[in-house]
Amino acid sequence: MAVIDLTTEGRRMPPHDHDYDEAIVEARRVDPDSVITHIGAALAALSLTWLVYERLTPFSGALGFVFVWWAMFAVFVYVLARQQWGAVVALNHLVRVLVGSAAAVALIPLGSIIISVTARGWHGLQLSFLSNTLRTASTQSKFSGGGAWHSIVGSLEVVGLSMLISVPLGVLTAVYLNEIGGRMATPVRMLTDAMSAIPSIVAGLFIFAVLIQSHYLQQTGFSGALALSILMLPTVTRTAEVVLRLVPGGLREASLALGSTEWRTTRNVVLPTARTGLVTAVVLGVARVIGETAPLIVTMLGSRLFNGNPFTGKQDSLPLFIWTQKVTATGDNTVTASWMWSGAFVLLALVLVLFVIARMLGNRTVGARRG
Amino acid sequence: MRVVSTVRVSAADVRPLALADDVPIDIAVSRSTSDRVYRAVGYGAGASTLVLMALIGLFLVLRGADAIRYAGWGFFTETRWLPTPAGGAFGIAALLLGTFVIAVVALVFAVPIAVGTALFITEYAPRWLRKPLTSLVDLLAAVPSLIYGIWGAAILQPREVYVSRFLSDHFGWFPPFHTTSVTGSGPTNLADFSASGFLAGIVVALMILPICAAVMREVFAQAPAGEKEGALALGGTRWGVIRDVVLPFGKGGIIGGSMLGLGRALGETIAVALIVSRSTRVHDLLEVLKTGGNSIAATIARSWSEASGMATSALMAAGLVLFVVTLLVNAGAGFIVGRSRSGAATEI
Amino acid sequence: MTLMEVAPRPHAEKAAALDAHNVSAWFGTHKVLERVSLEMRPNTVTALIGPSGCGKSTFLRILNRMHELVPGAKLAGTIALDGADIYRGTMPVTEIRRRIGMVFQKPNPFPAMTVADNVVAGLKLCGMKVERSHREELVETCLQRAGLWNEVRNRLDANGGALSGGQQQRLCIARSLAVRPDVLLMDEPCSALDPTSTRRIEETIADLCDTVTVVIVTHNMQQAQRVSQHCAFFLAAEDEPGYIVESGTTEKLFSNPDDERTLDYVRGRFG
Question: Distances from the Cα of B257 to the Cαs of A95, A200, B197, B250, in angstroms?
Answer without folding.
Answer: 22, 20, 22, 10
